[in-house]
Amino acid sequence: MKMAKRRKFPIKACVAAAALCAAGAANADDSSVTLYGIADAGLMYLSHSTPAFNGGTGAGREFQLTNSGYSPSLWGLKGTEDLGGGLKAEFKLESGINLANGGFDNPGGNNGLFNRTADVGLSGGFGKVMAGLQLSPFFEMIFDLDPRGTSEFGSMLIPVSENSLIAAIFMPNAVTYTSPNIAGFQFAALYSLGGVAGSFQTGRAYSVGAKYTNGTLLVGAAYINVNNAADSALASVGELYPANVRAYTAGASYKFGGLTAKASFANFKANSVPVSVDPALANSTNTSVNIYSGGVDYFALPDLDLNAGVYYQQDRVNSGGHSVMGAIGTQFFLSKRTSLYAQVGVVNNTCARDGVCLGSGLSVESGGSGVGGLQGLGTAAEGLGLPPGTTVGADVGIRMTF
């Protein structure tokens, strides 16, 4: 029987092949791309709905399948590459999902593929610099200070949406810098270029935030200034989009074992009348709304979270106008990635003496949030907000992360 002929490989070729394999393994280890997301859907009941969303002039009861009952449904890609010497390149691409119909969930009418985040940048010992569509440092602070984690139902996200739509949240054409954590202190700054030829002011925005954390105590503050947002890349939600938004917030949280207590204050100034109706408002603000919030988040068991929050809005321009919203929620974790949730909330709207109402709501998804401080078009029943009086709602659903 003839023996198979053994091939001989030069030593140099073996060494070169080994080097290439090692280099390939090193490159694979030094870079990564991660697919992630949240799928959230539930059933929601409201004792009053928003006229503009139910097609009628009244505000009747509403029962619906709701996308993003607790948190936004989304998917995204994020990646890093180690460039050596502690320097890394990073990117993040994120898009909203509407589980009710399988389409996009488009913040502010942005119909782009990645309509929530699309940025790239560098990070290292100096901190992080990113460029693209991003969340503002102001909204990041709102999230840190909200006892209900900016839930889509009955949280600080509702008054933020009511008083700025998305002008205080998503920042297009933006460059951000986030400092490293130095002895618990951290600072972030964002500048959004308007991109309008001949005018550096149109669509321009900037935001700053600073906080101190030590594992138990968090103290923070942030500011945002958005100019001529109605002309920006994300302003496709119609004439009610505010031309200008000015807002600041400050607050603190303290952790007692499994319980975290939070309290904050915020003020929003914006335009309440469409710019096309009164062009003079294009460079001014004519509303002012104070928001006081407080609440707790408590892990009663390792797999059971309970939280509650109260949010009081005060119209500083139209005397007597205010709203009070309260909500409680619970999440039961079936696993690290899947949870069942239930939320109950109530909001009471009191109109100002001149009849103007904030029209505050309970849910972003239902459209019940109205336009809050942007409501300058008469009573809430004539605009987008909920009617005067009390509205009760409940929301149950399932949330899965991947």
List the secondary-structure elements in sequence, H or E: HEHEEEEEEHHEEEEEEEEEEE
The top level CATH class name: Mainly Beta
* Sheet with the most strands, sense and barrel status: 16 strands, antiparallel, barrel
Helix coverage percent of residues?
Answer: 10-25%
What CATH calls the topology is Porin
The protein's oligomeric status is single chain
End-to-end separation: 58 Å
Question: How many domains, in number, for the residues?
Answer: 1
β-strand number = 18
Give the full name of the CATH homologous superfamily.
Porin
**Which stretches are poorly predicted, pLDDT < 50 over at least 5 residues?**
1-28, 53-57, 232-240, 368-373, 376-383
CATH-level-2 architecture: Beta Barrel
- Apparent shape: globular
Strand fraction? over 45%
Sheet/helix structural class:
mainly beta
State the strand order across the main sheet. Answer: 1-3-4-6-7-8-9-10-11-12-13-14-15-16-17-18
Q: Radius of gyration over alpha carbons?
A: 24 Å
**Average pLDDT across residues?**
82
Counted by DSSP, the helix tally is 4
Keywords: Cell outer membrane, Ion transport, Membrane, Porin, Signal, Transmembrane, Transmembrane beta strand, Transport
Signal peptide: 1-28
GO molecular function: porin activity
Membrane topology: Multi-pass membrane protein
